[in-house]
Amino acid sequence: MAEDWDMYVDWNPWHGCTKISAGCLHCYVFRQDEMYSAPTRSDIIRKTANFNLPVKRRRDKTYKIASHKVIFTCFTSDFLHPDADSWRQECWDMIRQRSDCIFYFFTKRIDRMAECLPSDWGNGYPNVMVGCTVENQAMADLRLPIFLQLPICHKSIMAAPILSDINLRPYLSSEIEEVAVSGESGVNARVCDYNWVLNIRQQCIENDIAFRFHQTGAFFLKDGRTYRIHRKHQLSQAHKANIDYKIGRYFVPETIKFPWPDDTYHPGKDLSE
Ligand code: SF4
User: 177: part of which helix (H) or strand (E)?
Assistant: First the structure.
């Protein structure tokens, strides 16, 4: 995978979150805040200075974020967190305005999606990709039936941090564009068993769905031995396993047609022009 890192942008309109399930136990938002002695508690959700980043402009009036970027959205919170309900409509407006970029967010609160959608959502904005995060069988069985019912143009499943073997077969319909698996990071991370990763890979192959082994996590069990993987090697070690299936160059599925072949892809007029 020859990544072009320049095509990715982080946009964190708010920061902070509250823990809702087993996968949240060692949440990196809390760990990072602690590491940097953040002055505000991690469970207090607050707007960031970058709230308007997608529509910020330079002196020459061009957007600071160029066209055709993948904008990773709300990675230091949960985009569907209830404490952000009063701010989200503004975000939808910016997302609609920047129809020349892909917005990709992950959530553990997919049960809130329907009540969080803008009135003009229809069958989904074509430039929004949503990843439903599941860490074990219970969360898969709870969240994925809801996820499959929702009108979303681009859907992925993120098994992260994977905490057990998971049977995704009932949920691997053709509308799932990618399944990714990650282990847990941090000094107290729970072990990622390579057999769990391989099992999900097999399920994806059976259903011809793209599979990505995103990262190993800090403690990686393979062939009866647990390896301690340094943070800086967790992505590359997963990639070295060479078990991805139907994965192209990018951190978004190839099915999302990126880069855009021409302007006809764009779902709406750029309201700024
Ligand atoms: S939902 Fe995500 S961001 Fe929020 S506490 Fe859980 S892991 Fe952290």
Answer: strand 176-182
Q: Where are the domains of the chain?
A: 5-253
Nearest CA to ligand 1 atom 3: 77
- Joined together, the tokens standing for residue 148 give 């499959």
Which protein residue's CA is at the shortest distance from atom 7 of ligand 1? 24
User: pTM of this prediction?
Assistant: 0.91
Could you identify the atom of ligand 1 that is nearest to the CA of residue 21? 6
Ligand 1 nearest-atom number relative to CA 20: 6
pLDDT digits over 23-65, tens only? 999 999 999 999 999 999 999 999 999 999 999 999 999 999 9
